[in-house]
Amino acid sequence: MDAVGRLKEKGVKVIFVLGGPGSGKGTQCANIVRDFGFTHLSAGDLLRAEIKSGSANGTMIQNMIKEGKIVPSEVTIKLLEKAMLENGNDKFLIDGFPRNEENRAAFEEVTKIEPEFVLFFDCSEEEMERRLLSRNQGRDDDNIETIRKRFKVFLESSLPVIEYYNAKNKVRTVDAARPINEVFESVKIAFSSFDKKVTTNSPGNSSFWRLCWQKLRRRVPVTVAMTASCGKEAPKMDAFGRGYRCFRR
Ligand SMILES: Nc1ncnc2c1ncn2[C@@H]1O[C@H](COP(=O)(O)OP(=O)(O)OP(=O)(O)O)[C@@H](O)[C@H]1O
Ligand SMILES: O=c1ccn([C@@H]2O[C@H](COP(=O)(O)O)[C@@H](O)[C@H]2O)c(=O)[nH]1
Hints:
This protein is an alpha/beta fold. The protein has 10 helices and 5 strands. Strands 2-3-1-4-5 form a 5-stranded parallel sheet, sandwiched between helices.
């Protein structure tokens, strides 16, 4: 039987965990594993392990990570597929993937898996930058130059993936700028049911975001300077929260 057949036979369920670099995905995935019985697959960790293993793709992956670029889909998807097949569990948190539309379409095409939902950690660049600069795990890409490149890639390539799933009502957004335990309280609500959408796109505590949210609900176009969150102009986007909450209507 081929990989797709085996994944299907296993009845694999996948949740994509997305958010900017340093938004706290890995930290919260560890809590979800502990309380909800998922297996955590960090795409970044799988790629770093591939470098360490001395594989033929190692140097290419290392260079892409140093530049904050997105590794070709087929490489990452093969690693994810292998990890899911080798693990006895059937529930997976896929952290940090898909990172662009091409990743997303290729994953669905190759594996025939659609995520149950997307858990989106919403956090401002300011806070993410602070966290990454003090992460201290010896990562090659946790330096200010690469961090800025990673933010740009997230904004330009990864947010459209979140918009795609948002249009399908599959995104559960958590305000990730709060302390770890408070973020996890919201994560737990997102996981309280697989079928029901619980916290999807619910407003955070920021009154600024609340205003944007209310206007969005009323379909009133909102024009807000993106400098409030990331100092960039974003002509395609309507509304912004403290972080990257900026879905098209
Ligand atoms: N809510 C939080 N408040 C303060 N610090 C946090 C919070 N969540 C995580 N951190 C810290 O911020 C750093 C980045 O967190 P983490 O590695 O979980 O982020 P990530 O989204 O997985 O990052 P990346 O995408 O770069 O792998 C870590 O040092 C972590 O301990
Ligand atoms: O699907 C993926 C995941 C990661 N990358 C590359 O790895 C780094 C680090 O990723 P983290 O999620 O922060 O661990 C990322 O900047 C990319 O260069 C990737 O290409 N594809």
